[in-house]
Amino acid sequence: MDKSFSGKGWGLVGIAALILLFLLPAFLPRFYIYLISLMLVYGLLATSLNVVLGYGGVFQFHHCVFYGIGAYATALFLTKTGAPFVVSFIAGGAAAAVLSFLMGLITVRLSKLYFGMLQISLGSLVWAIVYRWYDFTGGDDGIHGISLPDIISSQKGAYYFTLIVTLISLFIIYKIIKSPFGSVLQGIRDNPVRSGMVGINVKRHILAALIIAGFFGGVAGSLFVVVDHTVFPDMLFWTLSLEVLIMCLLGGWFNFFGPMLGAAIVIALRTFVSGYTVYWALVYGVVMIFVIFFLPDGVLGYLQEKLQPAKGKAVTKEG
Amino acid sequence: MDAVWVLFSQKVLSQILVGLSRTTILFIVSSGMSLILGVLRIPNVAHGSLYMIGAFLAYSISRLFGGGSQGFWMALLLAPLGVAILSLIAERALFQHLYKREHLMLLLLTFALSLIFGDLTKLVWGAEYKSVPVPQVFQGFVTVFAGLPLPLYNLFLLAVGPVVAVLLWLFVNKTKIGKISRAAAVDREMVSAVGINVSLVFAAVFVVGCLLAGLGGVLVAPTVSVTLGMDHTLIMETFLIVIMGGLGNIWGALIGALIFGLSQSLGIMIWPQFGIIFPYLAVVIVLMIKPTGLLKSTW
Predict the structure, then answer these.
(1) Where are the domains of chain B?
(2) Does A292 contact B240 at a Cβ distance shorter than 8 Å?
(3) pLDDT tens, residue by residue, A87-109
């Protein structure tokens, strides 16, 4: 059930938020600009995952593979070839989409938990290759100090670039979800058997959704290169993928902007908690358990239920 | 020419033996995961953490008892029990409330636990490497065929594997809890309708599964350096093994562990840098042929 925002009130909130996002660099210190850039990157990553997770009902456990491959593709294009930045940037999404297609060919035959466990394992294979291939990927160290065109090499430039690319990507994802293809996808999520019966090629649709999700995951990875000028193998380690899953859950994966919000909360929390203790993972684990037990629809799902009791009540999902 | 051939076959044989002792550990841990997957339907990411905690507990217990042979045997006895108690607390406090929820939620809960366990391990034992000595009895080598030396401890591991397999078979097929749990795996509501407290049976199965993770941790401790992060590599290996064998099938875990352990050890011999890839390739090939694993899945 899609419970996306609607109504004029929310539209105004959105426009205000946009204006704020564009004005922020004028008065925020550098560190916070970096932080918000990271939130956008992770937000896009979580939203791309949600295309298959929330709207397709696919257990994509290891989504960060595409994020990492996107980042590595961009970084390698920039450092090893003389390709212009635009080409390198697009190469990230493209590489991720191709990988997503190849992995999808193997995994799409399985369903639910089988899919998820095989996907996480295949993703770990990709991680292992990246981690071991010192000559090409820099192995454990990754690649540092990637040089970018002048216009986006500054903190502000990177921020604006990230903001614009994220907004465009979100817009495209939104359009895809609202398109007939998106409706079919949600139909498959709610009842794969019946969708198959009415003549929908379920596997082909899932595969297409996987490629789309992989592509935008790759774009998020390329954006990380722009923001941070580095890539490292941990970007495609499976623990990060599960963290992104939690971002989706925390924000609310039945809501288009849920993953974005979840990512922002997690990044803010991580930055805040890490300032006080090295045991960030412990705090994160406790927060996760809290969310799983008390916020099964995420923050946005919870807010929506509180704000619109009449509408929200009718919607119940089996757990 | 003959000498070269003997040398080569010796190398292959010794790699196979190394692979088989690795298989034992992998089988013990994955059979626990498979048991939990089959009956409770939990993809337990925290399984690796319990394995790690088992290894750290083995370190502490063996030091407590003087670090010698006696220490090892006490660790072998007590560390899995410690892990079992920890898992019992987790099951009663957290898991039992979530069985009706989606697998995804259970997976995320186990991930949250693995983060918490990881940090708790760091709190208790610190970030340094720990080593557990090989007990006196198993120091030294035996010569197996063609003058091939094999560490005695590996021989011990090779013997432990079948013992665990038989005990597990007895648990699943001959005990009441095992029989009920197999029934509950198929139809939980029917089992509870005939007046059996399914919740307690589930708790028992969960604890047995986690105990196996702890046992694996203790057994591996003398052969590796015990360190944070040993959970992360293991958990992916177990996932692969369980998928290959068929979700929830304990004997599938045995076959999966064999394929994994052997392809890994031989792969490393053939191509040291990328030996890690071979087990994954094996999994892909297996799943191309049989998408739901080699043996019948309980799903």
Answers:
(1) 2-130+146-289
(2) no
(3) 999 999 999 999 999 999 888 88
pTM for this prediction: 0.87
Please provide the CATH number assigned to the domain covering B2-130+146-289: 1.10.3470
| A191: contact with B, CB 8 A cutoff | no
Contact A296 B276 (CB under 8 A): no
Mutation choice for A interface testing from B36, B115, B296 by most A CBs within 10 A: B115
- Please tell me which residue of chain B has the smallest CA distance to A126: B277
Cα-Cα-Cα-Cα torsion A317, A108, A241, B99, nearest 10 degrees, comes to: 40
Give the span between the Cα atoms of B36 and B25, in whole angstroms: 17
Domains within chain A, CATH numbers bracketed: 8-312 (1.10.3470)
Distance of CA B299 to the CA centre of its chain: 21
Q: Please report how many Cα atoms fall inside a 13 Å half-sphere around the Cα of residue B294, on the Cβ side.
A: 20
Give the DSSP per-residue string, A10-46: HHHHHHHHHHHHHHGGGTS-HHHHHHHHHHHHHHHHH
- Residues in a beta bridge with B130: B226
For residue B213, what are the CA distances in angstroms to A293, B33, B104, B232? 26, 8, 22, 13
Both tokens of B286, joined, read 């297996």
Interface TM-score (ipTM) > 0.90: no
CA distance B274 to chain A (A): 7
Task: State CA B125 to chain mean position distance.
Answer: 22
